[in-house]
Amino acid sequence: MSLIRQLWLAIVIISIIAFGGSFTVSMLTARHYVAQQLQRQSIDTANSLALSMSQQSKDPVTVELQVAALFDGGHYQSIVVTDPFGKTMVDRIQTRSDTSSVPAWFVNLLPIESLPGRAQVTDGWKQFGLVTVISHNRFAYQALWDGLIDLAGWFLLAALGAGLVGTLLIRNIRRPLEAVVGQAHAIGERRFITIDEPRTPELRSAVRAMNDMVARLRQMFADESARLEALRHKVNHDEVTGLSNRDYFMAHFREILQGEEFGQTGSLVLVRLVDINALNQRLGHMRADALLKDLGTVLYASGEGRIGQRAGRTKGAEFAVVCPSFQSATEAATDLYERLQQDFMPKWAPEVPDLFHLGAVLYRRGQKPGEALARADQALAAAQSKGLNSWHAIGEGEALASVPAEQWRTLLTEAVGAGLVKIAFFPVVSGARQVLHQESVIRLQPAGQGALLSAGDFMPMAARLNLTAPLDLGVIKLALKHLETATGDVAVNLSAETISDWGFRNELRALIKDHPGQSKRLWIEVAEYGVFRQFDAFRELCKMLKALGCKVGIEYFGQRFAEGQKLADLGLDYIKVHPTYVRGIAQNSGNQEFLKGLCNVAHALGIVVIALGVESEGDLPLLTSLGFDGMTGPGVK
Amino acid sequence: MNFRVTPRAIVALAVLCVWLIQQAAGVNFDLIQQTAVKRFGAPAGNAMRDWQGALNESKSLAEMEKLRFINAYVNGRVTFVDDKTAWGADDYWATPLESMGRAVGDCEDYAIAKYFSLKYLGVPVAKLRMTYVRARIGGPASTITQAHMVLAYYSSPDAEPLIMDNLISEMRPASRRSDLAPVFSFNTEGVWMTGGQPPPAGGSSGLTRWQDLLTRMKAEGFDT
Questions:
Q1: Which residues contact B87 (CB under 8 A, 6 or more apart)?
Q2: Which residues in A274-312 are b (16+ Cβ under 10 Å) and which e?
Q3: Alpha carbon of A73: minimum distance to chain B alpha carbons (Å)
Q4: Could you tell me if A125 lies within 8 Å of chain B, comparing CB atoms?
């Protein structure tokens, strides 16, 4: 029985005992009082009758009249006069049936004995007889019954008052108690939350202990996160400029070319300083570093607000920027060149007139990274030939990008209803090659055209047209349908744009509620940048999905690691680590250390860690030894 | 084993016996005596002891002798003083302890002391009546009357009673007390006709003064 119910029961029982007890006592007291009054009346009447008879003539008629006069007043059960030897001389006994409103059960429950009053009658010095008077108890019952009704009314009122006070009391206890229980549940679900300390001392110490524990855990997590973040930054970034180093940049670029996160085409921009040795000589080492840092800052800033855009220092004097959101090399080159003209050249051009050249090319998905870089080199060479601080771009947007937005809108709007949306599955396996779940990826079959479109081909457009919600719901529907017949679990990713959409969330809840048998095998994930862009919305989504029994995770995890401690109170089930860290892991001891630490922290919070973008089977044992629970990617079949 | 009878043990045994006897008799003379000494000093204690002696001596007498003896004893011990002087109250019913202990009392105090003495000696209370009477003072021709109380003894329910009071020391039949006119009578036993039934709670009598007296006597050690 719950504590609250026990408290209620205690209040009810105590009230009943208190009321019942005082009720009984007051009834018994009243009965005793009434019985005494009855007897007093009998005695008084007996005395005065005896006194008056003693003074009067003793002829039988007078005696009888005296008795009758008193008796006919109606207050007596009986009046009897006996002679000194006990023989009855006159008697009057009430034979009328009881007409009062007192119920019989009450009379039986509280019998009132009407005791006789007796007094001697004398005739001169001689004894004449004895008067015995018994008062009628009908009036006593009536008084007692009226008192009972009155008392019951008051007790009912008092009981209502006690109930009211009890309700308030219980509510007072209940609120902090529920908060404590809620916190305990949350911790059980790996959501490490703190709550306000309640005023009740017993609960306060419990809450304080749990809060302390949570605070310590959070601190540990924050410390470890900070250490890992420092490590991650050191391993993957150039010391001077703070941009990605060559390995990290290339891993990211390769992911863009091979993965499904971004569109089919994008731009790659190379910026090369003209002569770094000459710069060092002319400006000195310190100032040359400052120049590099300035350049890095401008290139880094160009990626702000553009998903997937990343700048890296690929060689000593060469910088690369990959821009998935530019489907025209010229546009990408112009954007960057204008930024450099505005924020970089004014400071350094007066001293160093011949600063840099810029080349840009369009890349296509599936291209080899080296091939794209070689073409960018050609563009750079063309720029050099144009003179001081010049730029050159090769390649314009092609067929897909030229499809007008309105046509896309029609296609995407009709896609779900027309059954054009499909899902493809990729296995996620453990170190022991057991399938943890199937990762589902959205595909679109455009009407009339042969080739299936992958997510990167149309999801950016869907996001721009605000059409991700129906597509996401379509995928969830397909996944649930698949689960109805298939064994094992399925993971589905939701678009960053969708998670803050109320209507979508309600439909999602209804949809999953309709499939109670499947919800426990459904894993739902959101990309990291989407999570941090709308953190509160994600928190709500987490709560809702976990209540429905789904598993919730974050994919492409690891780029925003500094904010990672926010995740401690979400109760996440899993994270999928960004492929950038996973590619080429065998050669990158720095990232190995980083990922090992990441796995440790995640495991401390009970979170399953999965590696994305695994390129070869050969990496599986290493990743397992680093602590990964699951792996997926082109190398995992 | 050597069993020695010490004087202390004998005293203890004696006290125990006395206590047991008193319990059986229903009157705690020790308590009465202590109360008397405490309230009125040592002479009152002696008066109590004397009274106890007198009662014990007369236990074996015939009923008529008991009446005569007690009437004389009480009349001899108690001096008539009106309530105002004795107790500072207009009408005060004193307990036997108070009347005998202070050796003062008025008419009803005599009657009360006689009533309870006779009751102690085993005279059935059914034969005894406290009786309010109108008394003519100052000879047969006098017209002065006053309220008075006497104790009447009925040898049988229809017999002429014997009257005990403090106006004359002699116990006489009612017919020889032309100075007294009875008004009302009562005693402690309102239930003797049905027999054996104890007086009900709330008092055997509606006369609260009587009731008050019985309560005070109980506190002093009498079994009323």
A1: B94
A2: bebeebeeebeeeebbebbebbbbbbbebbeeebbbbbb
A3: 21
A4: yes
Kindly list the residues from chain A whose CB atom is less than 8 angstroms away from the CB atom of residue B207: 47
Q: Among A43, A122, A130, select the one facing B206 at the smallest CB separation.
A: A43
DSSP string, B77-100: HPEE--HHHHHSSSS----HHHHH
**How far apart are the CA of A176 and the nearest CA of chain B, in angstroms?**
57
Describe chain A by its helix, strand, coil percentages, rounded to 5.
Answer: 55, 20, 25
Cβ distance of B186 and A117 shorter than 8 Å: no
Q: Binning pLDDT at 50, 70 and 90, where does residue A113 land?
A: confident
| Mean pLDDT of the region A52-56 | 87
**Is the CB of residue B44 less than 8 Å from the CB of residue B102?**
yes
pLDDT digits (tens, 9 = 90+) for A164-207: 888 888 888 888 888 888 888 888 877 788 888 888 888 888 88
Give the HSE-up count for residue A54: Cα atoms under 13 Å, Cβ half-sphere. Answer: 26
User: What six digits make up the tokens of A204?
Assistant: 């306060």
Nearest-angstrom CA–CA distance, A213 and A287: 49
Cβ within 8 Å, pair B190-A36: no
Q: Which residues of B touch A84 (CB under 8 A)?
A: 157-158
Q: Are A518 and A484 in contact (CB under 8 A)?
A: yes
Q: Please indicate whether, in this complex, the C-beta atoms of A39 and B190 are within 8 angstroms of each other.
A: no
Q: Which of A558, A504, A523, A366 is nearest to A440 (CA)?
A: A523
- Measured between CB atoms, which of A44, A86, A125 is closest to B161? A125
Q: What percent of chain A has pLDDT over 70?
A: 96
Token pair 């959205």 is found at A442
Nearest to A125 among B157, B160, B186 (CB): B160
Do the Cβ atoms of A360 and A379 come closer than 8 Å?
yes
User: Do the Cβ atoms of A427 and A636 come closer than 8 Å?
Assistant: yes
- Report phi then psi at A274, rounded to 5: -65, -55
pLDDT confidence of residue B199: 41
CA distances from B207 to A457, B182, B212 (A): 116, 18, 9
Complex prediction ipTM:
0.71
Strands (E), A201-323: 265-273, 310-313, 318-323
For the record, the structure tokens of A79 come out as 């009046």
Instruction: Give the minimum alpha-carbon distance from A50 to chain B in angstroms, rounded to a whole number.
Output: 8
Helices (H) and strands (E) in chain B, counts: 8, 7
User: Does the structure show a pLDDT above 60 at A427?
Assistant: yes
The pLDDT of residue B195 is above 70: no
State yes or no: pLDDT of A550 exceeds 90.
Answer: yes
- Res A96 pLDDT > 60: yes
DSSP lists the bridge partners of residue B149 as B132
Contacts of A50 in chain B (CB under 8 A): 184
Which parts of B19-84 are beta strand (E)? 79-80
The answer, yes or no, to whether residue B202 has pLDDT greater than 70, is no
Containing A122, the helix (H) or strand (E) segment is: strand A117-123
